[in-house]
Amino acid sequence: DAGVIQSPRHEVTEMGQEVTLRCKPISGHDYLFWYRQTMMRGLELLIYFNNNVPIDDSGMPEDRFSAKMPNASFSTLKIQPSEPRDSAVYFCASSASPGQQFFGPGTRLTVL
Amino acid sequence: GEDVEQSLFLSVREGDSSVINCTYTDSSSTYLYWYKQEPGAGLQLLTYIFSNMDMKQDQRLTVLLNKKDKHLSLRIADTQTGDSAIYFCAENGGYNKLIFGAGTRLAVHP
């Protein structure tokens, strides 16, 4: 298996633009997580899904952020409109067993 | 509430042992985990321990758990430059969610 796949790996955009981050989890994993990592705030859980259903979105910073999982092999995290403070590395992770999460390589987002 | 605390930095000489410490708050956690993050990469599960165990050893890694004090440690024997990374302690937050600490940056110098 190729592991968790994220795209793009790097994204540079201007404030106000829409940003869409993509994730393909490991086949057979029924949990999918979106995290954000910054120097100031560390690793933050934004939202996670079980069997394509959002279970906990309490970490989503505000209404500008939305996440979907239309099927078991694909998820998106969208920011609209983007702001400079959204600059961070966004990780997707998937899991089939409690606690044993497999992380993707991350998307480094820079909002100018 | 749930919280996991770690020291932020550790510097060791190559060949020495490294000990990374962590305290957690949720006494009902079934498992406790150590993840490793190398530069430019995502986190990778390093090892984990069941809450009914005191110690787990896996090659150069030793995990010690003190449930009474809610203290977890990771010892790396014969630390190498390739061990330089950020190490995260994590506990179960329920429903397959993990609560991560802030991470300990391990620097290994010659």
Would you mind describing this structure in some detail?
The complex is a heterodimer of chains A (112) and B (110). Chain A has 112 residues and is an all-beta fold. Chain A has no helices and 11 strands. Chain A has strands at residues 5-7, 10-13, 19-24, 31-38, 42-50, 53-56, 65-71, 74-79, 88-97, 100-103, 107-111. In chain A, a hairpin with a 2-residue loop joins strand 9 (88-97) and strand 10 (100-103). By secondary structure, chain B is mostly beta strands. Chain B has strands spanning 4-6, 9-13, 18-24, 31-37, 43-50, 55-58, 61-66, 71-76, 85-92, 98-100, 104-109. In chain B, the strands form 2 sheets. In chain B, strands 2, 4, 5, 9, 10 and 11 form a 6-stranded mixed sheet that branches. In chain B, strands 1-3-8-7-6 form a 5-stranded antiparallel sheet, with no helix packed on it. Chain B is globular, with a radius of gyration of 13 Å. The model of chain B has no long low-confidence stretch (mean pLDDT 92).
